[in-house]
Specification:
- This protein is an alpha/beta fold.
- The chain has one domain: 3-Layer(aba) Sandwich (Rossmann fold).
- Helices cover about 40% and strands about 15% of the residues.
- Helix 1 packs parallel to helix 2.
Length: about 200
Amino acid sequence: MQKRITVFCGSSTGNDPQYLHQAATVGTLLAERGFGIVYGGAKYGTMGAVADAALAAGGEVIGVIPKHFIGGEAPHRGITQLQVVEDMHERKARMARLSQGFLALPGGAGTLEELFEVWTWAHLGMHTKPIGLLDVNGYYRLLLQFADHMVTEGFLHQRSRDRVHVDAAPEALLDKLLMGLEPSRRYAIPKARAKKSEATSGAR
């Protein structure tokens, strides 16, 4: 069975070239280590950088995209497989079920939503998949400080705070993330509404 990591990342490139560079590094490293990538299916921003780098290194890339994006320029048509789902809720559930771990790169509100959802599922005991946060340029420094503040104020358990592995270096973060993989476990990721979805495949 192919092991995969879901990568949460942005449709923008950010203002510092390091964001794109580190995204590409993550894609390359995962492919070189034999892991497939599950991501949001777009061809631009850091999403496109992760996908293109993984493909160039011979990796599997599965994109999951809501159907209302499929008619525009957003979808990456050159990835291993593009799965079209009904909506954003189904997208997140599908991405979670396809992978054995999660990695969040710098991104916007959508990236944070995806991160916090899988973090909440872990807090509730719905899965034990590892979660990683790539802190490029200290991007998540204030978020991590706030997480510590939630612990101090009694709104977050320290063990839940510690569920998120953090590092600024992609190689070190992947080492931490991959050590936590438990491929034999069955995970109770919530299922989206039972609606038919399409799946299309793209040649590399």
